Amino acid sequence: xxxxxxxxxxxxxxxxxxxxxxxxxxxxxxxxxxxxxxxxxxxxxxxxxxxxxxxxxxxxxxxxxxxxxxxxxxxxxxxxxxxxxxxxxxxxxxxxxxxxxxxxxxxxxxxxxxxxxxxxxxxxxxxxxxxxxxxxxxxxxxxxxxxxxxxxxxxxxxxxxxxxxxxxxxxxxxxxxxxxxxxxxxxxxxxxxxxxxxxxxxxxxxxxxxxxxxxxxxxxxxxxxxxxxxxxxxxxxxxxxxxxxxxxxxxxxxxxxxxxxxxxxxxxxxxxxxxxxxxxxxxxxxxxxxxxxxxxxxxxxxxxxxxxxxxxxxxxxxxxxxxxxxxxxxxxxxxxxxxxxxxxxxxxxxxxxxxxxxxxxxxxxxxxxxxxxxxxxxxxxxxxxxxxxxxxxxxxxxxxxxxxxxxxxxxxxxxxxxxxxxxxxxxxxxxxxxxxxxxxxxxxxxxxxxxxxxxxxxxxxxxxxxxxxxxxxxxxxxxxxxxxxxxxxxxxxxxxxxxxxxxxxxxxxxxxxxxxxxxxxxxxxxxxxxxxxxxxxxxxxxxxxxxxxxxxxxxxxxxxxxxxxxxxxxxxxxxxxxxxxxxxxxxxxxxxxxxxxxxxxxxxxxxxxxxxxxxxxxxxxxxxxxxxxxxxxxxxxxxxx
Length: 641
Fold this sequence. Notes:
By secondary structure, the chain is an alpha+beta fold. Helices cover 40% and strands 14% of the residues. The protein folds into 2 domains: 28-122 and 430-635, Chloramphenicol Acetyltransferase (2-Layer Sandwich), CATH 3.30.559.10; 145-172 and 188-422, 2-Layer Sandwich (Chloramphenicol Acetyltransferase).
């Protein structure tokens, strides 16, 4: 499944692994929206007022790169890398040339990074988007367990999304600020009516919201059958939740369990395989029209059947599996179109959430939309106006050739293999939330990240390359950079923590230094001064100028730095939910967390095919690390700061 590459998922052109975490870092809980009024009159006016992404100084990045490598390299490895860096940045050398080229690019583009990043991190990435790229989001279990409850909740969900869409269409979305700086809102305009299109070597994204006739329908999929549901009446007003409920009932009545081919499973395939199958599929006119209807839709609603029974303890973990991949061909993996940017999932048993294709956007617009929808769904329904005739939802038909049947069978087998391989554990850490680190004047995100470092070190007796996403939305079209949570300060702390020869006061001092180092790196990253995207830019500039790839990018240390055995993201939300994603390397973990005031939701993933990793074991180690860090703080008298 993983191919022959040692660095799993590495882009063959640039050597960079796509990293999936969702672009928050520490940003979102610091962000304050302004009132929902037009800021500077129009969205475009606001966007033009944002600064461009800076190009950090070359020497600064090289020095910080060495610092980032210190906790994960041996002494001799680091010595070799320093020699390569000295050569790279010498006066008149290739580093200076690439830096000048990058600065020139920055002066002539809206964002020197964004187009490259979308290509390298997503569109060139050929492993399936399922598990390897697309994050899922698990909502609290809803209070229904039958078809009627499913229909009622799903109709309110649609109405809530359309309510949010009105703010997008009218450009009245609350602009978000970070410490007085307004943030880029572009990603909010990329989520609805967009879709990924498979290609033979590179995919593309299409956004139909920007077309002359924006779509007025959503896609509903039930029992692996797809329907077009118009969600606006003839006068342009959104359908009410009561009207939508009637339409969903019609769809369910028109789509009993059948032996029709589960076309949606094709979107789970390796991108090259799906790209070829896609070309075959759309040769047929009916198929092409059906696929276009899905791609053009505002979003997809997946009405799932009930899943295998789960205990209260394992419910969230089972729900996470449904959000990430649907459980395999026997369950709901074919009840999806994974190329669609946004899919809401509503199960008959109350399991609800979403999955999104990562190329157009990070997590903030998704979570903001979901928070809005959940809040909207709790409102009491308003009295409805007299019913008007509703257009019957249109079933989408597919003509499946013998060759396509083989493609579907292959996709089912591969999806089942992947589903068996992924282990996801969702835990609710109920002992405390962000209240405890705040009481000790520590950043909650930094506190949790250092606990992750401690948990990993206790499990493996080493530090590893760790990714945490940092938002670059202070800049026009900003996406993400990397917060490197494994630092010299965190390494000193985790190595000292269980050392009986170290005093508690010394351990607390090391903890404070580690937390401060993480916070400093976070501030550096969201200010556009981190190292990873700059290094990528220099490498891409070499490709652009048709130069040989510099030796620092062929250095084993660079591969090691990008081999994220801990791939993490903080995803804060007003809703008591948790986001989840797969590991980004075969011997790694995906860790996502939502810190609430009194508890923390964690999702930890690993691959069963790797004997080194175990999601349950790391989850337990994280819980122990958090509790032990709190105990240390509470039992150690604090020196005056």
